[in-house]
């Protein structure tokens, strides 16, 4: 196609119609090639539209979306992330051009949300640097995109990339509904990561997130305490547990983790006092109150006060609906499971 010079007269109606038909034909051919997973051919049909043409921005956006599909398709076929990374980088170069381009008079509009989404999904799939991801994610958010379907992928990506600023920005959201949803995803991610050997590889990064605030920080501290106890690092566990209790004194789990950390450091009396204080300010049939009392019973076993421990255990589970409430408590507060095992073994 012959490019017009800047001082050329405007196209005649016939020429404009030819241009429009050419663009439509390119789109149809590109879609057909993409359906056949012929990504190079599809991209070729969308190439060659210059910045002086009204469809320039539209075609850039289409190429960004096409290359995202190419990355996804090649990964599904078993290709490695490294193998698709050059395509993904090319997609992000086009994305930056798209962002910087102007929509000339008469230009067909891009689906802006779809282009932003394609760009950040490309960064996620190809594990590009977090700057590339953040640019596209921010554009998607600013355009009003719904990030909920993607938070579960974005959180582990940001942790893997050690992007503390991006991680905290995602977790500390002013929208209460979105903040609650993201917090749930954060808890799920940390819980799943705790079960994997690779947690140690991100321990230093997570441990350094001291500027994190609110409930996301509480959840992180709980995960660090659990990890420290699992790895046999009681001193580190107690440091994190004390920080948790100081910053979040109204959070029952803070006191359960503090008691567990004190117990691991052979400070059973202090652990017992922690749980006794919690038990005194919570009803005995409340899941928190039940947990505090059973934890106290487990500590009594360690302190050679087994008769008292078994009496407490029997009283806890003698109440109506005790089993159901205990299941809720054990699900919410992981330390309770170990304390239950202790009392079950001793009391039978």
Topology of this protein?
Layout (H helix, E strand, L loop, with lengths): L12 H23 L3 H8 L9 H21 L4 H20 L11 H15 L3 H13 L5 H13 L3 H8 L4 H19 L4 H9 L6 H17 L3 H14 L4 H13 L3 H13 L6 H16 L3 H12 L4 H11 L2 H13 L1
Describe the structure.
- By secondary structure, this protein is an all-alpha fold.
- It has a domain of about 140 residues.
- The chain contains 18 helices and no strands.
- Helix 7 packs across helix 9.
- The radius of gyration is 29 Å and the shape is elongated.
- The chain starts with 12 loop residues before the first helix and ends with a helix.
Summarize the model shown.
This protein has 348 residues and is mostly helical. It has 18 helices and no strands. The relative contact order is 0.05.
Which key phrases capture this entry?
348 residues; 18 helices; mainly alpha
The count of β-strands is 0
Give a quick account of the main beta sheet: strands, pairing sense, barrel closure: none
SSE succession: HHHHHHHHHHHHHHHHHH
Helix segment tally: 18
Distance between the termini: 86 Å
Radius of gyration: 29 Å
Average pLDDT value? Answer: 89
Q: Tell me the overall shape.
A: elongated
User: Which class of secondary structure composition applies to the elements?
Assistant: mainly alpha
Which regions have little confidence, pLDDT < 50, spanning 5+ residues?
none
Helix content: over 70%
Work out the strand percent. under 5%
Quaternary structure annotation: single chain
